[in-house]
Structures are given as structure tokens and as C-alpha cells.
Design goal:
Length: about 190
């Protein structure tokens, strides 16, 4: 139980007490209400100050911020992977409909027996499996897909950093305990 003093001067009101869940819900609701009144963003310094007022150790807050950043990145990666899966399925379905529509049209125009059902049926089984994997993936598949998204994003960031370094025409790297800065044929080692 967390105890807060009431601002009321009424001596008949005992001090209010809240459970941890109630405190979280009240603070969440207050933050949501505040977002409608202003930009909704709270600076890191404001967050630290609020935590101090609530008696939360700043080092614990920093650890929670890092954890939330990691969790947020994973959740974003999961959403990205699911969106990619849906886009891929839509492309697959579009190809299926166009190609099989053309095959049906050819089959109808030639007057042959209905041979177009075989590619429709065969490819349709593949579409059904693709739909199942897209709309009802297992948690394991989502985690695996999210890891791939995170890895791809890291590679892209590294590529952007290399490109930026190349554009700056100098490199900064660490070798052992030394910081090495190189521009052209000039090299500076610190450490």
C-alpha cells in the first residue's frame, strides 16, 4: 500500500491509501489527460523530478528507462514484422488472383474441360498456408521475425554510419586501448 496525504482540510477524511495497481492506473490516466492538453511529451529531467517526488531512486529510474527502451524496440520490431508479413501475403494473394483469373479466362475461351481448377487448387493450398502463417503466427515465429527486423535495422544503421564516415573522409575506431583517428594518410592514436 502506498499512502498519500489528502489536500483536503476536512479532518473527517482519513488519509487516502492506494494499492500499487491503483497508483499505476491513476498516474497513467493523469498522463493521458495531460497529453490531450499539451504535446504529451515529458522531458527526461521532468521524469527524474517526478520520480524523486515519488521517492524513486534515480538509478532505478535510469535502469527502468533502459529496459523500457529495449522492450519498446522489440515491440516495434514485432509490429514491423507482422506488417511485413501482411504486405507479403497481400502481394501473394494479388498474384494468385491475377494469374488464376487469366488461366480461367483462357480455359473458358478455349472451351476445354475445366483444367484451370488444378492450378487454382494447388496454389490455393499454398495461399491457405500463407494466410495461416500471416494471420495466426506462433509466438516463436513472431520472436524470430522480430530478431531479424532488429538485426536488419542494426545493419542499416551501421551502413549509414560507415557512409557518414566515408563522407566525412576520416575514420574513428578503437584498437585495444587506443582510439585511432585517420584522415587520408594522416593517423592519430590516442591512448
Amino acid at each position: 500500500m502506498i499512502q498519500f496525504s489528502s489536500n483536503s482540510n476536512d479532518s473527517n477524511n482519513p488519509q487516502r491509501r492506494y494499492t500499487q495497481e491503483q497508483v499505476e492506473a491513476i498516474l497513467q490516466r493523469a498522463l493521458q489527460r495531460q497529453q490531450t492538453n499539451n504535446s504529451g511529451n515529458i522531458s527526461h529531467d521532468d521524469l527524474i523530478e517526478t520520480a524523486r517526488e515519488l521517492g524513486i531512486d534515480p538509478s532505478q529510474l535510469e535502469m527502468a528507462v533502459m529496459e523500457q527502451t529495449e522492450v519498446g524496440a522489440v515491440e516495434d520490431a514485432k509490429k514491423t514484422w507482422i506488417a511485413q508479413q501482411k504486405r507479403s501475403f497481400k502481394e501473394h494473394l494479388r498474384s494468385y488472383l491475377i494469374i488464376n483469373g487469366i488461366l480461367m479466362l483462357i480455359n473458358i475461351m478455349t472451351g476445354d474441360p475445366f483444367w484451370a481448377m488444378w492450378p487454382i487448387l494447388g496454389w490455393g493450398i499454398g495461399i491457405a498456408f500463407d494466410a495461416a502463417n500471416t494471420f495466426w503466427p506462433s509466438d516463436k515465429e513472431i520472436e524470430k521475425g522480430a530478431r531479424k527486423v532488429v538485426q536488419r535495422q542494426m545493419r542499416e544503421r551501421q551502413q549509414q554510419q560507415r557512409e557518414l564516415q566515408r563522407q566525412q573522409k576520416f575514420t574513428i575506431e578503437t584498437k585495444g586501448n587506443k582510439l585511432v583517428i585517420q584522415k587520408g594518410n594522416k593517423r592519430l592514436e590516442i591512448g
